[in-house]
Amino acid sequence: MNFSWRYQKNSLFKLFTLLAALFSLIALTTLLVHILHEGWQYLSPQLLKNFPSRFPHKAGIYPAIMGSLWLMILTFFIAVPLGLLSALYIEEYLPKGKWKSLIMVNIKNLSSMPSIIYGLLGLAIFIHTLGFDHSLLSGALTLSLLILPMIIITATEAIRAVPKSLRMASFALGAEKHQVVFLQVLPAALPGILTGIILSLSRAIGETAPLIVIGAATYISFTPESIMDPFTVIPLQIYSWTSRPQAEFHHLAASAIIVLMILLFSLNLLAVFIRNHFQKYKSRL
Amino acid sequence: MTVFDIKNFSVFYGPKEAVKSVSLKIKKNKVTAVIGPSGCGKSTFLRSLNRMNDFIPNLTTKGEIFFFKENIQKTNPVDLRRKIGMVFQRPNPFPKSIYKNIIWGPKINGYKCNWDELVETSLQKTGLWDEVKDRLNDSALNLSGGQQQRLCIARAIAMNPDVILMDEPCSALDPAATARIEDLIEELSQNYTILIVTHNMQQAARVSEETAFFYNGQLIEFGATKDLFTKPKEKRTEDYITGRFG
Ligand SMILES: Nc1ncnc2c1ncn2[C@@H]1O[C@H](COP(=O)(O)OP(=O)(O)O)[C@@H](O)[C@H]1O
Ligand SMILES: [Mg+2]
């Protein structure tokens, strides 16, 4: 009696988890099918090559793709060194204590702030105070602020996960602290750090709200030549097309979503690949 | 010749005295065993010798340790650790290839030599060469526990130290791997001064020439291993080696 009830409880719980998993799976599949259905007809090389246009059959997302790529690269070069060095400082040099806890709590809070707040911050600092205008640079700096907390958090976690025995073994061989940090701890934490960076970047790529706030253009007929040029990005292009009345533009938006999804999917795949690649150095003991 | 001259040395964790005014001399090219029940301060004592205790917060020391006439509190700990290798309780190879494990220490310390040769001789001295010569670029983490520990010894040897400190190097290993390490210690004792912490009295009796018996942070007895095990001077030593506590 007792046992069979336990057994039933077990299978009941299993059923619930299955239902929950199925629910998310079905919702996602529906969304995916819907978008593919809406967007496949406009999916063509032209979409990737052309500039936006008033005529749906001529419209493309070339400037948006270039804008997104540029923005991603710039954000990478701003946010990664800053985030990585901050994480190393916090984990390796900042003494444990209330300062460290205070800083970590604040960073965790920052990482869960709505992205539009970062847009407002970027508007105030980079555009109004520093006068960078509605440029790629302003966009990249804003997105860097947005993903910095996430990079710092994942990097500190990866660094903390490096076993103490690795540090001790290195010190025992007459290594200086900086050698231990940069030649042992950092490489050992790298897979975790890289995964965090890629996932943060893929978040940055999908962002729209902060870029609208800092006034990124929604219609642009040229590709950025320098970091001071105005720009648009794929999510903004999608946003602008969906707000048009004509149904054709909605289809176009759907095909742009497909492109964005492929981009995001590739980034996530890269993250998985990196994790697996470094797995071979994990102990089997 | 005296390698370590330890004078009234004490270690405190906060207010707690874990090593209590220990004085002894460690002789060159001998194997010295440090025995005693768990928690008696063996590891703390061993870590004092290459100043690995510097990494423990709230730790203070009293007294002096001389390493070849040099007061270690006044030397740069990094220089000290180049000359004093250490092998830990659990094998802790770097998550790198076998080859890189060996050359990492000498390389970052700016030693100049033929790396291939260094790898071969270091592995040969630890009897690992024939087992791994075909897979030097494999991850060291794919070796067995005993092989990993011998790699850690080889890694320490590659620095060409005067002393090798070993803190219960066999406690995570099976009997066969333990026997290999014990043989290795015997071979190495011709060229290196070795201090080995062990809670295994048979091991101390087998590998060491001198033994220090610690109890509750104090050095109770220190002398030739065969004397200490056959005719201990102290009652507590006798009780411990006859298994009455510990
Ligand atoms: N990091 C530490 N902080 C505080 N107390 C410690 C620390 N390490 C060891 N101790 C204490 O010091 C004493 C000696 O420990 P240890 O040297 O590890 O003994 P053994 O190696 O002989 O087992 C023990 O009572 C232990 O609890
Ligand atoms: Mg110990």
Could you outline the blueprint of secondary structure elements for this entry?
The complex is a heterodimer of chains A (285) and B (246).
Chain A lengths: L1 H38 L5 H5 L12 H32 L4 H14 L3 H15 L6 H25 L3 H9 L4 H30 L2 H5 L20 H9 L4 H33 L6
Chain B lengths: L1 E12 L2 E12 L3 E5 L6 H8 L9 E9 L2 E2 L5 H7 E4 L10 H11 L6 H11 L3 H4 L12 H13 L5 E5 L7 H14 L4 E5 L3 H7 L2 E6 L2 E7 H6 L4 H7 L5
Parallel strand pairs in B: 3-8, 3-9, 6-7, 7-8
Antiparallel strand pairs in B: 1-2, 1-4, 4-5, 9-10
Helix pairs in contact in B: 3-6, 4-6, 6-7
The complex binds adenosine-5'-diphosphate and magnesium ion (MG).
- Tell me the number of helical segments of chain A per DSSP (H or I, 4 or more residues long): 11
The set of bound ligands, ions and cofactors reads: adenosine-5'-diphosphate, magnesium ion
Q: Largest interface by residue count?
A: A-B, 23 and 29 residues
Radius of gyration of chain B, rounded? 18 Å
Gyration radius over CA of chain A: 23 Å
Share of residues in strands of chain A: under 5%
CATH fold field value of chain B: Rossmann fold
Note down, in words, how this protein is organized.
The complex is a heterodimer of chains A (285) and B (246). With 285 residues, chain A is mostly helical. Chain A contains eleven helices and no strands. Chain A has two domains: 2-42; 48-284, MetI-like fold, CATH 1.10.3720.10. The radius of gyration of chain A is 23 Å and the shape is globular. With 246 residues, chain B is α/β, with parallel strands linked by helices. Chain B has helices spanning 42-49, 77-83, 98-108, 115-125, 129-132, 145-157, 175-188, 201-207, 225-230, 235-241, and strands at residues 2-13, 16-27, 31-35, 59-67, 70-71, 84-87, 163-167, 193-197, 210-215, 218-224. The mean pLDDT of chain B is 95. Chains A and B meet through helix 7 and helix 8 of A and helix 2, helix 3 and helix 6 of B. Magnesium ion (MG) binds at residues 42-43, 167 of chain B.
